[in-house]
Design a protein that fits this description.
With 300 residues, the protein is of the alpha/beta class. The chain has 13 helices and 6 strands. Strand 1 and strand 2 form a beta hairpin. It binds 3'-phosphate-adenosine-5'-phosphate sulfate.
């Protein structure tokens, strides 16, 4: 199935093997078969919890492949970035992966246990993009209003509680990040944060390029950066999913490229919500060697 498939479905979350899938766009049997895929050394998977910078990383990878030439990407008749770097877990995409030419670039929101074990034997590459969970929550709240494939939240607090319970597609942000991070050294993995990318996009692009073994000139790298800034991506219809039909994305309710910043949670969380979130955060992450940037001021 393509994301631009205009059929009307009854989308709902279905629990599957300790994770959740979205009925209508995921097929559990198909998802289970991902584990058995043969991996090539040239395969690259971008792994994210939803709303952590997937489309941003897609854009950077497409531009690196095209050596910074945006016209080369725009001239391909694609409706959105994920037609060129698809989600492996969407219906029909696993089959296409098997015969696709190298390099096979894919994105996924899946948890670690669904992915081929060859990745943990250092075959292929993984880029994990993590974003601070308070901003993920806010971005995900707006995406639930925007996406008809997800339940519209009653209000912010209702969504806040669901997110903390992991009662959303992607399940618990904490489990997702901790599980993938704990396998970092088994894999060829680049672990990078959304905040690092905001803080210094040229350095982030250089790291990604080096990790992927790309050889670009300084000018080509500068073009990759230029065409992957939030302001420029906002103007690209493919990055905004503008051609995805209203049956899937309610374009009157918002835009995919919404704010693209750090610390928007401060405009949404009440004091009580912040305290509650921090309690859970402490409990979940106190023994974990990961820290996040929560505010723009922290990097100024
Ligand atoms: S999804 O639906 O899970 O694939 O969403 P995902 O692409 O992972 O995340 C969407 C958020 O990433 C922001 N974004 C960017 N921020 C800064 N710079 C650039 N170039 C960029 N591209 C995408 C996008 O705006 C969403 O965040 P919010 O906070 O909602 O704006």
């Amino acid at each position: 199935m393509d994301l631009n498939d205009a059929k009307t479905h009854n989308y709902e979350l279905v629990p599957h093997k300790g994770f959740t899938l979205i009925n209508g766009i995921h097929d559990p049997d198909d998802v289970d078969q991902i584990y058995n895929l043969e991996i090539r050394d040239s395969d690259v998977f971008v792994v994210t919890y939803p709303k952590s910078g997937t489309i941003w990383m897609q854009q950077i990878m497409l531009l690196l492949e095209a050596k910074g030439d945006m016209t080369a990407i725009s001239s391909i008749n694609n409706c959105c970035n994920d037609e060129l770097i698809p989600w492996i877990e969407l219906k029909g995409k696993r089959q296409a992966f098997i015969t696709a030419p190298s390099p096979r670039l894919r994105v996924t929101h899946l948890q670690y246990h669904f992915m081929p074990p060859a990745l943990s034997q250092k075959k292929g590459k993984v880029i994990y993009v993590a974003r601070n969970p308070k901003d993920v929550l806010v971005s995900y709240f707006y995406f639930h209003k925007f996406a008809n494939i997800l339940e519209t939240p009653k209000d912010f607090n209702d969504f806040f509680e669901k997110f903390l319970r992991g009662d959303v597609f992607g399940c618990s942000w904490f489990d997702h990040v901790k599980t993938w991070y704990s396998h970092k050294d088994d894999m060829n993995m680049l672990f990078i944060t959304y905040e690092e990318m905001i803080q210094d996009l040229p350095s982030a692009v250089e790291r990604i390029s080096l990790f992927l073994g790309k050889e670009l000139t300084d000018e080509q790298l500068a073009n990759v950066v230029k065409h992957s800034t939030f302001n420029n991506m906002q103007k690209i219809p493919q990055a905004n999913y503008e051609q995805i039909p209203d049956s899937m994305l309610n374009h009157h309710q918002g835009r995919f490229m919404r704010k693209g910043t750090i610390g928007d949670w401060k405009n949404h969380f009440t004091v009580a919500q912040k305290e509650k979130f921090d309690e859970v955060l402490y409990k979940e992450m106190k023994d974990f060697p990961l820290s996040f940037i929560w505010d723009f001021r922290d990097i100024e």
